[in-house]
Write a structure and sequence with these properties.
heterodimer
Chain lengths: 155, 433
């Protein structure tokens, strides 16, 4: 179990590094677009679409690390009273199962997109499966983190 | 199923799940997937996948991580200390000047973080102990911090305004700009209330407060904060003049913030990486909720509940002002219990068609709605911002913070009444875009 926890922690951190890199890439690409449009009168056709793709990467690749750090927005007025007790574990289990179910559902869509070679719409199309895969990865890893990394391990 | 029952089931399930302490995005996932399974069956799962994909790739949301990154870099660049000293120097040796310094600072911090809870926690940890140590009244100090923190979701760049604009299909630039005048009016009302309180009760502020006062000339103070002010004004200016989109302004702001850090000699790779990590983390926390909740509005529309609610409201024949008051009452009450982003994502799908049906100016309505959200979160006994302040400064005590919030609520209610009677205060600047 410890090995699995450690493996998930490494995976979550690795994904988080990629997410932060995607955010840096958003800054770079929008700045480039602004410079090219206003100073060289040569707007690009790919920045708007790329920013959308990168944004999906920022959110979904950062998700497992946010889950690992128990950083999600939650309403803890009542749940503070059962910290460390069975209801907390029950809800953690529920959260994990829901994330895995969502990953499985989107995974079905991913398989369909790969099979049919679906591309994104817009000026700079890429295989839609590339983005969907980050969603499946983010939700799947988060689900496992909810199930395997108990809250008291983070304290 | 009747539409009131549909609404009741959806909202009751969502509230119940949120109150268990489940992450808000998981609560939305449970309700959306459960609703989809019941209403459409497994063949509707493609809808869910598409809704997540669409919201995650909405490039307008890129403004959120970019504004967060700009704020993080400015926070870590030492601008905050420079600003504190400069504002302190400019206000001078006025009785009760720290109250005014805190109002000015919280307005700026609000612009940087966009979160009332974050500003309350920050000032509760930094400014409040200094104020109480110097003999400032605990209750008045707490009230000033609560009022200042509550400006965060209103003063641009407001993250909530970006989310509302995107979900309700209202100009994001317009909503961002619409917050400027109300933010300044509310800050001025707070400053007026503090000045009156000190005049009425001179013991609320120490007679001489020279300790820690910044040295140097006023011009020098202004010069020191100039790079910082230029960034904030440039970002807002680009949006106001319609030169750049909010995302482009935010990216430009990030580069400007890096330049400010270099001017203040705080630029380092480590600082930039920390800022990047923090902005990434907070963006994921917010945007995963947006992605998980998108299907909620589609399901409500699918059941016909949204259309039926609009028809029912129109059939009531109530005066639009009464409808407006009712529509404002709901967020005021619920935001005492719920996170602002979570409530926003539940309310926008229902409110958006109502706003159109009642003929309200969307920029005016949603700006007042944002002020109202922040008001709910400083209202006892459950307001989120109150608990952020108590958590940051437990020595002040629950009772003091609760009592401190009452004048703040009165100020914000007076402000909302003013913006209702004089809507031009909200709509003039966006209409001049």
């Amino acid at each position: 179990m410890r090995l699995l926890q450690r493996g998930l922690a490494w995976a979550a951190r690795g994904c988080f590094l990629l997410a932060a890199t995607a955010l840096a890439a958003i800054v770079a690409s929008i700045s480039l677009e602004v410079a090219l449009r206003y100073f060289a009168n040569a707007p690009t056709h790919w920045v708007a679409d790329s920013v959308g793709y990168l944004l999906a990467g920022v959110v979904m690749l950062a998700l497992p690390e946010v889950t690992r750090a128990r950083g999600h927005v939650a309403i803890t007025l009542l749940s503070k009273s059962w910290e460390g007790r069975w209801p907390e574990r029950l809800f953690s289990l529920l959260a994990g199962l829901v994330c895995l179910a969502a990953a499985w559902i989107i995974g079905q869509e991913l398989a369909r997109q790969i099979e049919r070679g679906v591309m994104t719409q817009g000026a700079a199309p890429i295989p839609k499966a590339w983005i969907t895969a980050t969603v499946v990865l983010g939700l799947g890893l988060s689900g496992l983190v909810f199930l395997v990394c108990r809250q008291d391990d983070q304290r | 199923m009747d539409w009131p029952l549909v609404l009741l089931c959806f909202f009751a399930a969502l509230f119940a799940l949120m109150l268990t302490g489940l992450p808000v995005f998981v609560a939305f996932l449970v309700v959306n997937l459960g609703g989809l399974l019941l209403l459409v069956g497994p063949r509707g799962f493609g809808l869910f996948a598409n809704s997540v994909f669409d919201s995650l790739t909405t490039s307008a949301f890129a403004a959120i991580p970019l504004f967060l990154l700009m704020g993080e870099i400015l926070f870590r660049s030492g601008s905050v200390e420079v600003l504190f000293d400069s504002v302190d120097r400019m206000i001078g040796r006025l009785r009760g000047r720290l109250y005014l310094v805190v109002i000015a600072l919280s307005t700026v911090f609000g612009a940087l973080s966009g979160s009332a809870v974050a500003v309350a926690a920050l000032l509760g940890r930094s400014a409040l102990p200094t104020m109480t140590a110097r003999g400032y009244d605990k209750r008045l100090s707490s009230g000033v911090i609560l009022a200042g923190a509550s400006l965060a979701p209103i003063i641009p760049p407001s993250l909530l305004a970006i989310i509302v604009g995107s979900l309700a299909d209202v100009s994001i630039a317009g909503l961002l700009i619409a917050g400027i005048i109300p933010g300044i009016v509310l800050a001025a009302l707070t400053a007026g209330w503090v000045s009156l309180s000190v005049l009425r009760r001179p013991d609320a502020a120490p007679p001489t407060d020279a300790g820690g006062e910044a040295q140097g000339s006023i011009l020098g103070a202004l010069a020191r904060m100039l790079p910082f002010l230029l960034i904030i004004l440039a970002v807002m200016g680009l949006i106001v003049l319609g030169i750049a989109t909010p995302s482009e302004s935010a990216a430009t702001g990030v580069l400007g913030a890096i330049a400010v850090a270099a001017i203040y000699r705080r630029l380092s790779v480590g600082m930039l990486l920390d800022a990047l990590g923090s902005a990434t983390r907070i963006s994921a926390m917010i945007l995963v909720i947006v992605a998980a909740s998108k299907l909620f509005s589609q399901l409500l529309a699918f059941t016909g509940a949204t259309r039926a609610l609009v028809a029912w409201s129109a059939g009531l024949g109530l005066d639009p002002l009464v409808m407006f008051a009712l529509m404002m009452l709901v967020p005021f009450v619920l935001c005492m219990f719920l996170d602002q982003v979570a409530f926003l994502l539940m309310a926008v799908p229902l409110y958006s068609p109502l706003v159109a049906a009642l003929g309200f100016d969307p920029i005016w309505f949603w700006t007042l709605f944002l002020i109202n959200l922040t008001l709910g979160s400083v209202t006892p006994p459950f307001g989120y911002t109150l608990f952020a302040l108590i958590g940051a400064a437990p020595q002040v005590g629950l009772g003091t913070v609760f009592r401190a919030s009452l004048p703040v609520i009165a100020i914000f209610l007076a402000g909302m009444a003013l913006f209702t009677l004089a809507p031009g205060l909200v709509t003039w600047l966006p209409s001049a875009l």
